[in-house]
Specification:
Length: 392
Amino acid sequence: MTDSKYSLDEIRIRLNDLDDQLLQLLSERRSLSIEVAKSKIETSKPVRDAKREQQLLVKLINNGKNKYDLDAQYITKLFHTVIEDSVLLQQSYLQNLANPTQSRKPIARVAFLGSRGSYSHLASREYFSRKNTELVELNCDHFREVTKTVESGHADFGMLPIENTSSGSINEVYDLLQHTTLYIVGEITLPIEHCILANSDIHIEDIKTLYSHPQPHQQCSEFLSRLKGVTLESCASTADAMQKVKEIDRADVAAIGNASSGKLYGLQPVKNNIANQTENHTRFILVARKPVEVSSQIPAKTTLIMSTSQAAGSLVETLLVLQRYGINMTKLENRPIMGNPWEEMFYVDLEAHVESSEMQQAIHELIKITQHLKVLGCYPSENVKPTQVQLT
């Protein structure tokens, strides 16, 4: 047995001191990130510099290995988070300059699906935590109410889930986008960590009724298929499901939701990680009555909605236009046009700034060959792709 030269209390005090030092250094690094953004305004350089990021990571990996006996995976994982934070800070700073009227608003009214603790609520808080904006939270019973609340002016923004890595596209939201006058002004991807929540530490075998939104039921279908004699009940949101379980207060009912949200309702996790996919994420879009200006220095996305003729090859023709101008498509979704049998509306997400020359030329050509085309929004891409380096 090896004796430590420090007592456990002494070790914990030292760890606390080191943690405080780390927090101070991270704060200083954040401040310098803003200074970097200011310097890029003068030089018009883009926020991301892949070569610089790669050089930085390689240097950190080598120093960590040779000087401090730290492995490459640990350093890479840590600094991916640091770089992502720096990029998002710089983007937010540049966006505030591009939208001065919006940035001066200290309060934002945000409509979302469900009560406190729903995934849409968590996404709203996560998104605006980077904006230093105080939220007025307006919970809604369904997606249509979210859009109507924003369209009427009772809310400044609406947070809507659009797709999930496990269950796919959320068709109800896509259908709403056909008819709304709102614009997409932002996005955020949230990790979804489903678990079984109950009022007490019950056994899974005792559950007779399980409440949740239909999406989690679908995303956890493999786990749920193994449960015997359990009735699945649908609620407007995961938060409403948790609230329902709290009110019923029986040992044979439970909900599917997020563990941290469950704490808001006095529920405890009974079974964690029940989703079909380990990497379960939902992409949310933020909608508003007016579009935002996006700095040309920021990675941007543009979302189009369009319909084509019924002639063979019509859709392919539109995609060839995008290919010709080197515009990368990240999403293509089709939905039926209500009232027009057999006709479809296409939603296209593009990695491009709507004001770029390539995008403007592409739109000009697309208008000629489509029956209907509308730009639903150009907005900053909040998904910061990790810097790629070769680990040895």
